Amino acid sequence: MKLQIDNLDGNGPRxxxxxxxxxxxxxxxxxxxxxxxxRVSLVADGADFVVPVTGARVMLGRTNGQxxxxxxxxxxxxFEYLGWGERGPVYRYxxxxxxxxxxxxxxxxxxxxxxxxxxxxxxxxxxxxDAMPGLFDTSAVQGGDILAEYVxxxxxxxxxxxxxxxxxxxxxxxxxxxxxIFSPIGATVYTLNESDSTFSPEGLQLQLGNTVIxxxxxxxxxxxxxxxRDYFVGDGLTTRFYLSQKPFTKSNQTFVDEEYSGSALDLRxxxxxxPANAVSVANGKLQIAGGTGSDGATLVQFVEKIELGxxxxxxxxxxxxxxxxxxxxxxLYSGGISITGCLAGFLITPNGAGTxxxxxxxxxxxxxxxxxxxxxxxxxxxxxxxxxxxxxQQIFHSSMHSAGNGIGGAEVSANVRLVLEVHDIxxxxxxSQIAPSTVLYDGVATGAIDFCxxxxxxxxxxxxxxAFTRFIHAVDTEVHSALTGQNYVTRLVGALSDGAECNTTSxxxxxxxxxxxxxxxxxxxxxxxxxxxxxxxxxPASIAALQRGIDNGIHxxxxxxxxxxxxxxxxxxxxxxxxxxxxxxxxxxxxYDVWSDFLPNAATDIFPGDxxxxxxxxxxxxxxxxxxxxxxxxKDLANEHSIYKIKFAQDGAKSLSFEFQAAKISTFPDLIPxxxxxxxxxxLPSLTSAQVTAVTSTTITVDxxxxxxxxxxxxxxxxxxxWGPDNDRNLVGRFATQIITLPRLGKVQTYxxxxxxxxxxxxxxxxxxxxxxxxxLL
Length: 778
What we know:
This protein is mainly beta. The chain is 6% helix and 46% strand.
């Protein structure tokens, strides 16, 4: 075995093997999804001995070329005085080297848009490229599960983010000799069998824990809950209207803010396909000068997908046309980039020396045509509204549902409202800066796709400059209004300078002075309420099996999940399912100390994340565990004999699929316990389309939005609690028709609706529909 250190002095790697202190064997410490360490002590072995320096490259390997450790000295050696020798004072130099990824940890990861609908391996590969482009071999990175969203935080290191991604994908990473390896937990399995001639019984320690949990409450993140509609009426003067609930809003606000300030496209955000060299960045703008004349040939495409969930505002840019143009700006695509596959975008066509702008919806031109005016510039905006904030469930794992076979991950169906608008700005007219935008299209895509590709530019022959591009997760509210006897129209929400008519905060809707609602103009605000994601899941079979004496068999606990994020109650249920699978089995932990010559399966090395099958009948042990830590003491460098201390555990003892944090809530709402066999079947669909259709001084009329189920109906309450047939305290009534007439008791009134069926006990919706009116008494 050879220890080499390159002190980066131009002399290349030096062989320090003979300088290794014989009284202290080198030790390699490997921990799962953490930076590996090498601890070694040196004593000068000659006059040419060079004390290793900070930053030196350290390599410990076998004579057959197999690397045991590669890394760097990130701190100076610790000098330990040993006495006086023939050439003066003698020191022991204690070194601590850390594996290769420590270089990645020293780099500040750039701010970037969240990874959306990417595989775990793809995201990790991109993080590595962001930190040190082209310097690490990522060919051994496997894909793993799809991450609905992963937010890269520049305040954390590369290895911290790699560990988080590994938890979400139930995988392990390691970096050795410049190669990043990312693979599922347990991809390699070794067998430790007491019948093998190489088995060392004295080196095996086993402990069986008793950690059975059969009643688990999972605390998740703040989630979107009630489907709220607030109704107001204008009086010609009032500009502020107070919302009945605090709207749910994604925590990430502006997730792209591109000013094109450099000399080239930012590759963290954009990819360019440019065979005609029509795309450039100059003078603080994205410049497009032509194209190939073909659809989909000249592109500027966003590197991430766009989730069609919640309220998202895509400001494609402030665009100045330099000549007659053709192509698509701000296109959302279900697959490849082409006009026929465009879900929504702005179709640009030449019109003499000018240009026409028209909405492009489902591959066809739609709505009115806007003719450009020379010297004007145009801000293109697409607004996305949907009641479902998240369009894909999280994926959770257990030892039984490993990487590639997780629980959850289902798509969430939703209708999506798309509003395409253009703000026409005349530089010679300051008033145009705050003039309302022109809405080219306002419509609903039924059962729309959940994620789509985005191309800022699909240029067949575009001649324009783009001053900025901005993507915003807005307050998730959708505002409509209707004059007497007319249909509701969408009101544009945002900044006045962006051509909007009103704005919303966490508590109120405010109209700008130029857009005050007229007398008797109806106003409707639609959004999701806010609450904590919670779920309680039990295993009745385990509870029954553990009943004895005065013990009712319930072994319960509460877990607040940090990773993977449980964003909704449905996620909490799936997380509980995965956790309970491992909490109902044995919880073995152990350690195996053995010389390297007698490793199981004649292995040449073992790493954290490998599986180890224990077959030791004499101890009643037959189980599969996962290696968590490996310590290697290199007792005999010359003959390459080492002692391996292999620490392993089952998920029931220490989960590999979750990271928990301290619970932050002390009181829980009434939860409906769900058994492990009922998850996904207990709740009826929520009344997402329930709305008020008429208001009088004494009654309101409600359309539940769907017909009642056979034998079921709709339950209406004054508050969002007490649901079920046994509580009539806050009950307004139970109804078996879609159109419901309810009593009105005051100027301001709120009703909560859920549907129920004929089951015994009846099933109800998971979330209520909340209908709030603030109308004068007629």
